[in-house]
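Two proteins follow. First one:
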Amino acid sequence: MVGWIASHQAALHRFILSLLPDRSLADDVLQETNLVLWRKAAEYDESRPFLAWAFAIARFQVMAARRDASRDRHVFNDQLVELLADEHPTANDATPLEEALQTCLGRLSEGNRALILARYEPGTSVQDLAKAHSKSPNALSVVLLRIRKLLEECIERQLGTSIP
């Protein structure tokens, strides 16, 4: 479950940001969503797409955050949030490339997956990650390059073709 939650952070964050105009509030809602996902892990039906389940939970967390912030005049109304949520692509709408990427991310070691996902979090730099992992920025860049190469090769195998 931890791997699925970690590998879908970017998609969850984008989904929540599409429903909440305030980045800070969206970050808070993402954390709350992660807590709920973790608490409800035993309820997840593995025969269904994980991301669709996670989006449903995120939607409820967005609604709760909106309810709590309803005194703010810069909050979307419920109808607009529902419309935006309904228009957001779900896991079932993923392209073959996105599906291959998710599969290949799942095949990485937990450390490599966490590192590559951390690199693409908004506001994260190679310098920040290097410091956190006690490596030089150049050494970390080499590690990230190797992880990207592993992903590229895996995706090409999944798709049966080279990545455009």
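Second one, unrelated to the first:
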Amino acid sequence: MKPTLLILAAGMASRYGSMKQIDGFGPNGETIIDYSIYDAIKAGFGKVVFIIKEEFEENFKAIFEPKLKGKIETGYVFQNFDLKQYGIDLEIERTKPWGTGHAILAARHAVKEPFCVINADDFYGLDAFQKMVQFLTEEVTGSNYSMIGYEIAKTLSDFGSVSRGVCKVSHDGYLEEIIERTKVFQEGETVIFEEDGEKYPLAIDTRVSMNFWGFTPEVFKLSEELFRDFAHEHHSDPKAEFFIPIIVETLLNSEGADFKVVPTDSKWFGVTYKEDKPVVQASIDELIKEGVYPENLWN
């Protein structure tokens, strides 16, 4: 059974609506999400499921169905504010979605096979998708999950500091903990994180999480229980978010599952600052020159 790719795209609506042209990175206006799906098909995923807001379903289908028809199976699930579906009998006013951990719950009825989850607006590289497919077809179990680990130096911006989930990895390659460092940047040849005005160096090959996780559907039951508790606990905080690392941390602390840190040497691209956009475009142009991608991705 081929694994499924879940794409966290509920926050992407405005960019994929009338403004989608603004977010073109490839020579024909290809978005980052296009390159991820292209790599996923090449790596051997059998299905892609978009997690979106329901009101943008038609828009997404109009954009992706013509490109993907006959290439990969597609599905669409909706992240919304309906708490009753999780057995939560509370009325909670919110304007912001409940976070990435809540988003994957939206796919609990649509995904029956091993799957991975990625952000819609991050560029991960073919190597990462190939390694994830290999893990999801050969190694994954309900107690053995994975995370693609990027070298920290390959995830930074030239235009300011970034937040990164810095991983502590055991000698046999498993995740021990993730520490959120909110101010990471490069200074000369050194990667630095700053805390309370103090600077601390990090090894350039330190592994970080870029929200690329591999699971089986068994993760949904635990996630639903955790989300129920989270919603009750944070019902008066309209900005509280239930993130995937909350699920990961719970599994690690309860020894419910291990997470293999699968190393990739791919360079991660993302647009943290508006000045990053031309850098990402130039990087994609370079990959096209090297023959990694065709100039026109879908034709």
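SUMMARY FIELD: The first strand starts at residue 4 and ends at 8. The mean pLDDT is 91.
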